[in-house]
């Protein structure tokens, strides 16, 4: 994107995935940097910046006015997609919230959700749950991206209407079908970090005094097995053996 409002790696990666030259909504905009940067760069003609709380929306107003973009970024107060008219924008970004909140927003008004050409979702946590829940709200996962910002991994999912009934398997839900297909060093680092976390938790359970819920232990073992499988797949992709 043309400089105008510099974005960190996470928001810059989201900006790259926005449908060009079509209106955008940023749901839960807070600081309002994403829609402002996109209109300044001429990547979208206009944008709606929405938030359910007045204080974040006031922060967005400051960003938009300081950038001289008030004629191209509208500010709207409201819950989830409710401030939008169905079909009004092509892309909606929902970034920086947990997966349960995102799924609740998408399920609250299926007509508005399906009226969007593209949704870009960047959950703070729960990307596995989000992938699993997309088909229930009539969306299919068309692309994924993994970025690191200040030492933290961020998963970005791109979903589009259609794909209801397309079921991802457990490995695809945990790692991401598109990320897994592409592989690469960043994904390997993320999975290794996740595996270390899983093994620390397993060690904690092993030391626990008293009964540990067998379902919890089994769920954790399953997760560890999936992570090992994904890492093995990446190793084979990176170091192909003799055919
Ligand atoms: C952590 S900020 C994320 C800001 C920005 N999207 C980003 O990723 O940098 C989360 C924002 O989402 C807003 N929010 C949370 N739940 C929401 C909902 N259901 N509808 C609209 N906004 C919501 C909060 O008020 C807050 O301003």
Describe this structure in words.
This protein is α/β, with parallel strands linked by helices. It folds into 2 domains: 9-166, Rossmann fold (3-Layer(aba) Sandwich), CATH 3.40.50.150; 185-238. 47% of the residues lie in helices and 20% in strands. The protein contains 10 helices and 7 strands. It has a 7-stranded mixed β-sheet with strand order 3-2-1-4-5-7-6, sandwiched between helices. A hairpin with a 2-residue loop joins β6 (139-149) and β7 (152-161). α4 (99-108) runs parallel beside α6 and α9 (185-207) packs antiparallel against α10. The chain is elongated. The mean pLDDT is 93. The chain binds S-adenosylmethionine (SAM). S-adenosylmethionine binds next to β4 and α4.
The CATH homologous superfamily of the largest domain corresponds to Vaccinia Virus protein VP39
Global geometry: elongated
Question: Which structural class do the helices and strands define?
Answer: alpha/beta
Number of strands: 7
Instruction: Output the number of helix runs.
Output: 10
Helical fraction equals 40-55%
Please tell me the total number of domains: 2
Relative strand content: 15-25%
Structure ligands:
S-adenosylmethionine
Q: What is the fold named in CATH at topology level of the largest domain? A: Rossmann fold
Distance between the termini: 42 Å
**Strands of the largest sheet, in order across it?**
3-2-1-4-5-7-6
The CATH architecture of the largest domain would be 3-Layer(aba) Sandwich
- CATH class wording of the largest domain: Alpha Beta
Q: Provide mean pLDDT, rounded.
A: 93
Largest β-sheet summary: 7 strands, mixed
- Series of H and E elements: HEHEHEEHHEHEEHHHH
Which spans have pLDDT < 50 for at least 5 consecutive residues? none
Radius of gyration: 20 Å
